[in-house]
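In response to the reviewer comment on reproducibility (Comment 2.3), we provide here a single inverse folding case reported in full, input and output, so that an independent group could reproduce the run without further information from us. The structure tokens appear first.
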């Protein structure tokens, strides 16, 4: 029954692919990719979001963050 409920609720949930790069070049070794369920804060130097595994993640950058958000 819980699998059915998870499937049903996933029909209304939008997921995003978040790629965070700590320098100006995407695709190198410092990039981190997350699957995001919900964003709490999206600012130039601060991101707070919930992943698809229900973990709360906060990322801060003193010089600003380079990130891309893609809808899945």
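Designed residues, in position order:
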């Amino acid at each position: 029954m819980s699998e059915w409920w998870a499937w049903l609720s996933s029909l209304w949930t939008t997921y995003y692919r978040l790629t965070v790069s700590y320098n100006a070049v995407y695709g190198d070794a410092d990039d981190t990719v997350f699957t995001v369920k919900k964003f709490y804060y999206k600012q130039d130097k601060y991101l707070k979001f919930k992943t698809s595994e229900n973990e709360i993640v906060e990322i801060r950058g003193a010089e600003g963050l380079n990130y891309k958000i893609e809808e899945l």
